[in-house]
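Below is how a single chain appears once it has passed through the pipeline. First comes the sequence as given, then the structure the pipeline wrote out for it. We keep one example in the README because the format questions we get most often are answered faster by looking than by reading.
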Amino acid sequence: MTDTSVRTHSITRRDGLTLLIILFVAGLLRLGQPGIVEFFHDEAMLSSMAQQMVDGTSFPLTGINSSTGIPNPPINVYLMALPYALSSDPQIATIFIMLLNVIGVGLLWLIAHRYFGKTTALVAGLTYAVSPWAILYSRKIWAQDFHTPFLLLALLLGLYGFWEAPKRGDGQASGWQIMAQALCVPIMLIGMQIHFAAWALVPMYVLLIVMRHRRVRWGALAASVILSILVMLPYGLGLAQTLQADPTRVSDAAERSSAAEGLAFDDTSLEAVIALTTGYGLETWVAPNQTDDMLAAVPPPALWWLIGAAALLGIGVMLLRPHMRPLAPIILTWALLPPLALIPNWTPVYPHYFIGSIPAYMLLAGIGVAWLSRQVPLKQLGRAMLLAAFILILVTQGLWWRGALRYLDQNAIKPPGFSVPLHYLADVRDGLAGYDDVVVLSYGMSWSLHHESVVWPVMLHDQAQCVRTLVPDGYAVFPDGTFAVLKAPDAPDNPVRGLYTTGTPVIYPTRPGETPYEVYTFDSAPVWDGPELTRLQPIQFDIGATLTGYALDAGQVYLAWQLSDGHDDTNYQYSAQLFDDNGGRVGQYDTVFWQQRHWCAGDRLLTWGPVNGSETASELQVSLYQIGTGSQAGQFLNANVLDAAGAPSGQYAIIPLR
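Resulting structure:
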């Protein structure tokens, strides 16, 4: 492989002004209307982990689980801890993401200007600044939305450090070049750990270094190896712990993949790349069930196809122009390898898998337009007219984006489209100010499955001591003191038997046509209007739950509990079993116990569910247990019942019924 020199271009004051204009445009579109962003499940889970890290209650070695079931690296939690150390408001963290991506636009401009020239940099920078897909993927607390600036920085450092340094023996590398060589791979690994999709770009960085291996400085290489190990160390430890607890986690994920069922080949990934390059198709992602309505409200101009044509032209220019050929393998690998690798559908294909390559498509468009500007007649005038026409197309993209934001903010969007914008949630949060205790009524209570149960502890982090979620039936909590109830849009009418929806609520509307949030307030816990409970001598379990009463009525078993403070990741099932005089089991009810993430010290909890056999039963046995996973799969891990001295005395609370 020939180690030829690479042409570079210095930055003038006029170039600096151009960069400022591009950054202004990028900032205007990314930071504009910052409340019209999603804050849904993944965003809330990542924020929750970052807040816990800032609070000092955890130092995670893995992040949230990926869609495959394999935990993500924790680097995105560490990065999100930076804005959350300043404020617990998700809006501030969202602005942090936006600013990172404005920097990313500047980094692409620097790469394009230094190695391809000012015209390429102008077009590539502006195209990236106004690209609807690039803006969409720059505006929320989603791991995919903030890996690209790190990948761009690593590429810039690699080009500067490995491509501009003299060969070993031909001259002394500058201190900055040595530092760039040392930092390139560690920063690349930071970006790639943020989201697994970025690992598809590893070959680009391998080419970046291998093609200039004669310029590598051994001291920089040693420093790079050490820094890379340190960058990967937390995830290495976390993944080792995960596999120790669940040795089949990776193999199970592989069995669930599409490849396990046989590979199919299609052009879904290529269609995604066309959309990401031209700007078309955003409605299929943000409003997939009402694309026609969105396109009627904000129709995209047909001229956007010219951006794709410019990118195709850029590929040809890179391959045919001698002074660009040295960089062609790197840029084309960056642009084309990720979609080509997914033509065999070994995993479902989504547009966000190619976010890291969007700058490459914009760079190729810049290369194509720059070459074309040198071919037009009338020289300076023709060149200016061509650039002005292309910039006018880009202006329509920026205007379209603003219209798309208005549409997403003012119209009910059906799931799985653009969720309720953050500023509506902030209105609800402000309405709950002054309440230290909040009960959220929602469809589900699982942190890893149900978004409302994660969103509100994050939103209310600084103003409520206890935020817990109740599902529509089977559980009721009786807080000790004043509290507020937030009925989420996904809760049915009169959840929990209407216990918490008495009186006139304060209504917090979201988008027109969507179910609003409702807030009810209580000076004290509501009075239970169900069957009378038989009080028990308290029976304490070693997980912090104490059984204090029961009732059997109309085919239902009711259990009363006193709770201690909860534990985030320790969840149990509970079982209520009925036995007759002969010791035969005549009825049983098993289900999820109220998850410990929602417990607050002093809470009284009531659980209930259907059970048969109460007419002939003489004994009720209650237990709490976990279902083993990983190496303990198939096992039932019971909580212990404690005696008066706090020592284990069994695994069942045994209650005589007569």
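Residues 432-522 form one domain.

See the next section for the split statistics.
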